[in-house]
Specification:
alpha/beta; FAD/NAD(P)-binding domain; eight-stranded mixed beta sheet; five-stranded parallel beta sheet; FAD-bd; Salicylate hydroxylase; FAD/NAD-bd_sf
C-alpha cells in the first residue's frame, strides 16, 4: 500500500464513494465539506450497470434497491408527434446482459446511502461546514488534525483543488441549458411512461422523463442547445427563464408544451464542461469526478463516472507508489472519460438533429432491433474497473 491516509475535498457522490473505496483497501480518510449539512440540488439521476457494479462491491447497492425504480426500457420518442423511435431493454435484461441493474432514483437517496455507509465505516471521518482555503498540508491539517499522504479533489465543476494543479482543466459554458422539475403521479399525463426512461427528441432540444418511487411522481429534465447563460447555477427559474424554456420547445407536441408551461418551480441549470488538462500534480494531489472531467449529461453518466473514478483511484494507490499510481490512474480514466464524452457528443447530435439529419436518424433507428442497440452499449454498461 502506497498511502495510509487521504484527505478528500468534497462530500458529494465522488467524495463519499472515494472514502468507501479507500476504506475497502484499508486506507483511512478525512472528508471535508463546506456545507453545514449534506443535501443535493436537483431531483433524479440514472445509475447504469457500470456504476451499480461498483456500489455493489462497496456494499451500498442493497440499500438503494429498496428505494429505486428499475425501468423496463430506455426509449427514444419523437417530441413533435410522440412517435416511438427506438428502445433499449433494461430491467431483467440489464441484469442478465451487463451483470448488474439499471436504476433511477432521487439524488438524495444515493447521497444518503453513501453517507450512512461512510458514517458506519471507522476508517472514514466527515468534517461538515469547513471551507478549504487552498490545498496544502497546513490548510488541510488545520481542519483534520492529521497529515494526509494524498489529497483528492472531489469538489465538483467549480473545484478549489483544481487550482493547485498546474495545467489543470478549465471549465466553460457548453451552450446548453437544463431545466429540472418533478410532476406528481396524480397530475402526470397518461403519455408519460410509468415503466421506463423516455427521451423525447426535437430540434436542438430534448426532454427526459422517468418515474421516481421516492416522490410518487416523475423526474423531468429539459435540455436545449444554443441558449445563453448569465452563469447562474441551479436557481429557481424566473419568468424570463420560463419564457426561454417555452421558446426552445415551441415546435413540440402540445401535450409536452403543456407539461413545460405548468412546471412547478423548475430549476435553471447552465451546463458546464471541462477542457483537457492535468488531473494530478505528480506528487500528492489528484482530481476525480466533475473536478477532472465535467461533461454534458447526454449519456446520463455524470454520477457513474464519479463512482468509477473513486473506485479506480483506490485500486491504483493501494498497489503502487503514489506518483506512478496517480499517473496510471490518470491515463486509464482519461481514456475512459474521453470515450464517454465522445458518446455523449454523438447522442447530442442525434437527439437534437434537424431537417435531413433527423429523417436519417429516424430511419436508422427504425432498422435497428433493441438487442443491437443494447450491444452498442456493452463497452459502457459492461465496464469493470481493471478490465
Amino acid at each position: 500500500m502506497s498511502i495510509k491516509h487521504a484527505a478528500i475535498v468534497g462530500a458529494g457522490v465522488a467524495g463519499l464513494t472515494s472514502a468507501l473505496s479507500l476504506a475497502a483497501k484499508g486506507i483511512s480518510s478525512d472528508i471535508i465539506e463546506q456545507a453545514p449539512q449534506l443535501g443535493e440540488v436537483g431531483a433524479g439521476l440514472q445509475l447504469s450497470p457500470n456504476a451499480t457494479r461498483v456500489l455493489d462491491q462497496l456494499g451500498v447497492l442493497p440499500e438503494l434497491e429498496r428505494h429505486w425504480f428499475e425501468p423496463e426500457a430506455i426509449s427514444l420518442v419523437s417530441g413533435t408527434d410522440l412517435r416511438p423511435l427506438a428502445s433499449v431493454p433494461a430491467g431483467d435484461f440489464a441484469r442478465k446482459r451487463w451483470g448488474h441493474p439499471y436504476g433511477v432514483l432521487h439524488r438524495s437517496t444515493l447521497q444518503q446511502g453513501l453517507l450512512r455507509a461512510v458514517l458506519n465505516q471507522p476508517l472514514c471521518r466527515l468534517h461538515l461546514g469547513h471551507r478549504v482555503q487552498g490545498i496544502g498540508p497546513d490548510s488541510i491539517g488545520a481542519i483534520t488534525d492529521r497529515k494526509a499522504d494524498l489529497v483528492i479533489g472531489a469538489d465538483g465543476a467549480w473545484s478549489v483543488a483544481r487550482d493547485s494543479i498546474a495545467g489543470s482543466p478549465s471549465v466553460s459554458f457548453s451552450g446548453n441549458i437544463a431545466w429540472r422539475f418533478t410532476i406528481d403521479q396524480a397530475a402526470a399525463p397518461a403519455f408519460l411512461s410509468r415503466a421506463g426512461v423516455t427521451a423525447y427528441l426535437g430540434a436542438k432540444a430534448h426532454l427526459v422523463s422517468y418515474p421516481l418511487r421516492e416522490i410518487d411522481g416523475f423526474n423531468l429534465v429539459a435540455i436545449a442547445a444554443g441558449t445563453k447563460s448569465d452563469e447562474s447555477w441551479a436557481i429557481d427559474a424566473d419568468a424570463a427563464r420560463r419564457a426561454m424554456l417555452l421558446e426552445q420547445f415551441s415546435g413540440w407536441h402540445r401535450d409536452i408544451r403543456t407539461i413545460l408551461s405548468g412546471a412547478d418551480r423548475p430549476t435553471f441549470w447552465p451546463l458546464y464542461q471541462a477542457s483537457q488538462g492535468n488531473w494530478h500534480n505528480g506528487r500528492d494531489t489528484v482530481l476525480i469526478g466533475d473536478a477532472a472531467h465535467a461533461m454534458m449529461p447526454f449519456s446520463a453518466q455524470g454520477a457513474a463516472m464519479a463512482i468509477e473514478d473513486a473506485f479506480s483511484l483506490a485500486a491504483h494507490v493501494a498497489r503502487a507508489p503514489l506518483p506512478s499510481a496517480l499517473e496510471a490512474f490518470s491515463i486509464e480514466r482519461k481514456a475512459r472519460a474521453e470515450r464517454v464524452k465522445a458518446r455523449g457528443d454523438f447522442n447530442r447530435f442525434a437527439y437534437h438533429a434537424r431537417g435531413p439529419f433527423r429523417i436519417g436518424r429516424d430511419i436508422v433507428l427504425s432498422l435497428r432491433p433493441p438487442e443491437r442497440l443494447a450491444a452498442d452499449l456493452d463497452w459502457l454498461y459492461g465496464h469493470r474497473i481493471g478490465d
